[in-house]
Amino acid sequence: MPTRTSRRDDVLKILTVCSHNRTRSVMTMAMLQSDLDARLGRGAAIVRSLGFGPPDLPSIPDAVAAMARRDLDTSGHRSRQVTERHVEPADLILTSERDHVIKIAAVSQSAYGRSMTMPEFLQLASLHEPPPGVDLRDWATELTVGRTARDYISGDVTEIFDPTGSSPRTFEKSVVEMEEMCTRAAALIAAVVDAPSAPNRFDFD
Length: 205
Known about the structure:
With 205 residues, the protein is an alpha/beta fold. The model is unreliable at 1-9 (pLDDT under 50). The protein has 9 helices and 4 strands. It is globular, with a radius of gyration of 16 Å. Helix 1 packs parallel to helix 2, helix 1 packs parallel to helix 9 (168-190) and helix 6 (118-127) packs parallel to helix 9. It has a 4-stranded parallel β-sheet with strand order 2-1-3-4, sandwiched between helices. Helix 1 links the parallel strand 1 and strand 2 (45-50).
């Protein structure tokens, strides 16, 4: 599939979100960043992660170890909270659960339109090819057009299993599933845009 021109002077801004920003969102952040770097080049996309638990806590040891096995270092990660200031700049927000999308809606209605569980994004993006010239932010919004809160709450939305506290075998199986999702997501995102010509910051500090 040919690449499509987006805002070439912008870095893609992507968020991953889970309950406490210590396990799923940290791992999907690290793996998606690695995949996008490989496809678009370093600096073309910035992936950050958020959650709804207490701030400034480290990723759980199982998650750090799982990423280390993939040569990804998340040992310095500290949890950050979902706020309007954090979600508004994001072009695409990939959550672990439907409840996370609903909570984002309470923080920012516009960000809600760019928020999906990662499995949900993979399904919608595979079915709706972006029109030529569309940027990631607009495409993400188009994918959720017509989604009402009532239908979303009662609908069938696929989520990412939370492996926290599970056996090593179950934890690794879950990480492999997330890894596959991130690879697919990176391919879909990379197909929408060309690498940018200039960097742009996406910081929470």
